[in-house]
Amino acid sequence: MLSLHIFGSISLESRQSPFRVFILHSESGEEYSCRRLILACGTKAKRLDIQCDAPEVINNVFSEVFPILQVKDKHIAIVGAGDAAFDYAMSLSGKNKVTILYHGSRRNCHPRLWQTTSSIPAILYKENIVIEGVPRFPVSRLILRCRQKGELIDLEADYLLTAIGREPDMDLFSPDLCARQEELVRDGRLFLVGDIHQVFSDKPLSLLVMESRQLCEY
């Protein structure tokens, strides 16, 4: 029988034993325990660590594109040079001006994405440029203090969107569980599937079915 529960946290049993069980704490106050656990919690976007002089800046900085997909007549700065950055740029360029900023000079996107975005007038690509901070915040717009080849440049934008990769979404897990993650996977007690599996492992996604079958054999 399949049942659905929403969990607020996941931890390991407090007693010191190699056979400690996983404790899952539901938002309704119930606890569930298991000897083996499949994690399919996905990933979350990495956040850009920049110095901001005004706290309200956070309202104009995003790490996911969906909150600003409907905006128009705005200037949006995107940090990154992978597939996500260029895909976001294409999605937003229909009604906005977009500037892609990258700290290096070697793009990581698919060649076809680069070819397509290069032909869109509303998209500008700048390389070898680093955002050092946001010194001012005038009338709901951002002033991005950037450095490009040793020269300081102030770039004005309405929104800043980061596309610098993803990391495991481990917000629900206790420090003890996070610290022992590799050990538990190695012992066959913790199984990572989906996006989180790709972050922690170089194995192809097609192995997920095999891992699920292995778990059922225990």
Fold and architecture overview:
The chain is an alpha/beta fold and 218 residues long. It folds into 2 domains: 7-44 and 170-217, no CATH class; 47-164, FAD/NAD(P)-binding domain (3-Layer(bba) Sandwich), CATH 3.50.50. It is 21% helix and 33% strand. It has 6 helices and 16 strands. Strands 7-14-8-9-10 form a 5-stranded parallel sheet, covered by helices on one side. It has a 4-stranded mixed sheet with strand order 6-11-12-13, with no helix packed on it. The chain has a 3-stranded antiparallel sheet with strand order 1-2-3. Helix 1 runs parallel beside helix 2. The longest helix has 11 residues, at 207-217. The radius of gyration is 22 Å and the shape is elongated. The protein starts with 6 loop residues before the first strand and ends with a helix.
Question: Layout of SSEs?
Answer:
Blueprint: E1 7-12, E2 22-26, E3 31-34, E4 37-39, E5 43-45, E6 51-52, E7 61-62, E8 75-79, H1 83-92, E9 97-101, H2 111-118, E10 123-126, E11 129-136, E12 142-148, E13 151-157, E14 159-162, E15 166-168, H3 175-179, H4 181-186, E16 190-192, H5 195-200, H6 207-217
Parallel strand pairs: 4-16, 6-11, 7-14, 8-9, 8-14, 9-10
Antiparallel strand pairs: 1-2, 2-3, 5-15, 11-12, 12-13
Tally of structural domains: 2
Tally the beta strands. Answer: 16
CATH architecture label of the largest domain: 3-Layer(bba) Sandwich
State the end-to-end distance: 19 Å
Instruction: Provide mean pLDDT, rounded.
Output: 79
Identify low-pLDDT runs: 200-210
Radius of gyration over C-alpha positions, nearest whole angstrom:
22 Å
Examine the coordinates and then state which fold CATH places here, giving the name of the CATH topology of the largest domain. FAD/NAD(P)-binding domain
Beta-strand percentage range? 25-35%
Q: How do the SSEs run, as a string of H and E?
A: EEEEEEEEHEHEEEEEEHHEHH
Percent helix: 10-25%
Number of helices: 6
Strand line-up of the largest beta sheet: 7-14-8-9-10
How does the major sheet shape up? 5 strands, parallel
CATH homologous superfamily grouping of the largest domain: FAD/NAD(P)-binding domain
CATH first level of the largest domain: Alpha Beta
Q: Which class best fits the helix and strand makeup?
A: alpha/beta
Shape: elongated
